[in-house]
Structures are given as structure tokens and as C-alpha cells.
Write the C-alpha cells for this entry.
Amino acid sequence: MSSPFIPDTAPFSVEQRAWLNGFLAGMFSSQDGGQSTVVMEAKPVSILWGSQTGNSEGLARKISKALGNKGFAPTVYDMDDYDVAKLAEESMLLLVTSTFGDGEPPDNAAAFYNWLLSDEAPQLPNLKYSVLALGDSNYPEFCKCGIDIDLRFKALGATPIVERVDCDADYDDAFEAWLKSVEDAAGAAASAEGSEEAAPTEPEFGKKNPFPAKLLANYNLNAETSSKETRHVELSLEGSGMSYEPGDALAVMPVNDAGYVEDLLQATGFTGEEAVEGSTLRQLLTETYDITNLTLKTLKAYADLSGSEKLAELAEDKDAFKAYSWGRQFIDLLIEAPVRFGKPEELLALLGKLAPRLYSISSSPRAHENEVHVTVGVVRYDSHGRARKGVCSNFLADHGGEDPVRIYFHHTKTFKLPTDANAPVIMVGPGTGIAPFRAFLEERAATKAAGKNWLFFGDQHAASDFLYQEQLSEYQASGVLTQLDTAFSRDQEQKVYVQDRMREKGAELYEWLEAGGHFYVCGDASRMAKDVDAALHQVIAEHGNKTEEEAAAYVEAMKKSKRYLRDVY
């Protein structure tokens, strides 16, 4: 017999239909004069988030608000704070997580991820769930953390109410579609009339409407003798109404290099003046589409279009694709296997959208009113016979101030200074990783925070690569910067890095940690951050007289209490 709620013809499995009908039956639990009376007993939903930069946390909050307005009782959990013993008792769970580095879980998701994939995780036959995975398709291990969690849930007997959705850098549309599917599949009952909160007023400027900022300053922090180019960029916030705090990131909307656009037009045979999507092809290739990054998705689509057996084979082997794609861009596919496009839409269908670039903010608003500063490492190199440029770093480096720079803020609640102004702060930031720590020091100086500050900074040569040296020296002289340890790797025969300085100062470093010190790391995730983490474990083990297991537990406790935070990429 068909259900009075979800008919047998509905597009759900038997298990999903049974669960949904049980939920709806609870909503209509009493009769009054032959009329059903709605009993608004909100169904609990747990929403877990794992995030390195704050995107997943922001989406988790949006999910909570949306489901709360649909008659549910959502609870949002930082994965680090979630009691895994509760998982076996959950009836409905939604999980949002990013992936960073080489397919790794975010810092706050690592403990949950490792536990879930271990033998300790229980069977979950009663759990209904869905996973929203965030990632960047420029990396071979796209959305790996979310994929692993989804597959593990299924292996433990849980049932997805909506299949996992993998989101790229431009995730807004995919998120909205996933959320709508979750609401529909869960049979969310509308709240009583008038119970919904009024939607907050959207700020005038933000992700959907970037602020056109005036360029105030743009100069190279490296000496002429350096092999590197690191730009200090200052932008005006006058008239924006936007605000930020140290630890936040600035999102910059770049435009593609004009030379790259012309090369692509020449390779495809288009003039650039073709009308498409309400604009011209040249303008779209300049401002809207990503014409440089070579992703696995693009390679697969191009292999099908071109009929190239070589590209088709590469598309089926992630390791081979990773080796092939290093130092190559989309135009290399056109050279490898030329294709004649019939119309511009065929070309645009192969390209992703040009995504904003996030930069750690290197200023405090209390030190620079109505301004925001960023520290940008410029990427330029030659590969496979062509000159290559980082899209946004060169956009900023070559910017003369004639046009505005479109920006908005990416706020984070995690990578922040301690609320206790007396707490010691330890900062490890080689190269452009110094950016948020310049902001931290400016903030600590402006607020006259009493806590001690220690910076580990490194780069190649002291004479040419000592970023913000003058300002750091002033902070040392004034007492804001209690201690500065530098590691210039190529100033001596044996290379020295920030993790080496940490080990050299291990006894004192451990004293700072024991005094409640907050430990921050910013920079490269693939090597530096891992080496610094290993050095931290070693320092704690050696100077705390602990075993490796005890040192690991000490570090985990620091993470739990938000005293070990990383801004890594």
C-alpha cells in the first residue's frame, strides 16, 4: 500500500522512503475532529565542518540557518570539537569539508578524519547523511577529504539522503543546488507562519559585488640582487564600508594577461570580437574565464574533443597527468593536439571561471585606517618553451594604479590573535608567510598588548630578501617584538631553515608554550609546514621530557584549545 506521505513512485530508495515517512509521521501525530494537527517537534540535525580558511564554516552556518527556518533543530560543530562517541546515535548528519595541500584534511578535521578511517569507527546503519566537499580542481587530489569521508560513511552502513557534491573554487551555485536537494530529500516542513527570521541585509560590497579599490602603493620588497620579487601592495577602502581583522584574507579578482589572451585567440583562430554571452570573446577571456590553469577535467574534455590518444591516456592516470600538467597551461593542449572550434561557446565550455585569489592580509586596520595591505610573491618562470606568469601576482605586480582592483574580504574565525592580550605569541612565517604576522605585530602594538611576541622568519639571503626588515627592527627596539630569529638558507654552505632555528631555541620555545603561548604557522603546506610541525613535536618531546606519543598528545591539546593555528596553502 502506498504511503500517505511519500508515494512509492517518488524518486527515493525503499530505505530513504521509510525514513522520510517516519519523520513526516512524527510531524502529524494527533487528530482533532478528523483534521491533522501539526506537532512542531523539530528534528535534530548535526552539521560538521572542516576548514582551513573558513569557507566550510561559513557554509555550515548558512545550512544551519536554512534548515532552522524549515522546522529542523540544527547544531553546528567544528569537527575538532565534535564528540565522536555521538556519531553512532546520530539520525541525520550533514558534513562540509575542504581539502588542502596534497589531498589532506584541514587541521580541524584531521582527528575526526583519522578516527573515521580507523578500525575504531562504529557501524552506522541508522545514519542518514550528505557530504559537501570543497576543493580546487587545479590539484590532482581534488576534494579528497570529502570523498574519503563519504566512501567511509557508506562502508559503515550509512545512507546518503543526497549524494556527495564536489565543489570547485567557484562553489556558490553548486552549494545552493546541494542545499536545495538536502531540504527536498529530508522532507523539511515549513515553519509556522511568521516564524522565519528576517534575512540580514547583505553588505553593499562582498563576493557577489567586489569593491573597486584604488591602488595606493605597489613596490618590490626584495633588493635588485634578489632572484625573487615580492610586492607590497596597499589598497584604499575609502567608501567601501568593509572591515577586517588581522588573520583575515583579501580576495582579489584578477584579469588575465593581455598577451595570454592574444596567444589563445591566435591559436583558436578567433578574432576576439565575436559576440558571446552578452559580451565579446576577448573581454570574457580577459575578465571571466580561466585561460591558464590546466585541470584534469579540462584535459578529459579536450581529449574527447581532439581525439588525441595521448591526452586520453593522461586523463586516466592522475600521476601521469600531474607530471604532464606541471609548467603547462591550457594553450599547451592546443599546441599538442590542435582543434578547430566552430563557435566561441565550444571553447568557453572547456574553461573554468576565473577565481579570486586569496592573500593573507599584512596590515592592521588600527595601524592603517581605510587601507588594506597584502604581500605578494610574483610567479614568473619559463617552461616547455614558453614564458609563464602567475595570473594574480602579475596582475598586481604590473598594476600602475590606472584601474581599480576588485576586492572583498574573506573572514576567518580561527586564525586570530588570542583574546588574552597577555598571552605569548610565537609566529613562524618564512617568505610571504610573514604577511599575517606583520598584521599581528601592528595589532599588538596598536592595542598595547602586554604579551610577548616571537617571530621566526626565513628566506634566501639577508641582504636582499629580509622582508620588512626596517619595521621589524623598529618593533624590536620598542619591545613589541620580543624575539626575532632568522634563517637565511643560502647565506652559508649548509642551508638553514626556520625549523632549524626552532630546534636551536628549543628550551626557550618550550618555556613559551608552557606559559600558554599560541603557536602560528603561515606559508607553504607541502614542505615547510610539515617540517615545522615535526620540529615542534621534537622540541616538545626533548625539552618536555616526553615520549613521541606524549608529545603528539601535547600538540593535539594545543590544537583543541586553538593554540596551534596554521594559515597554509
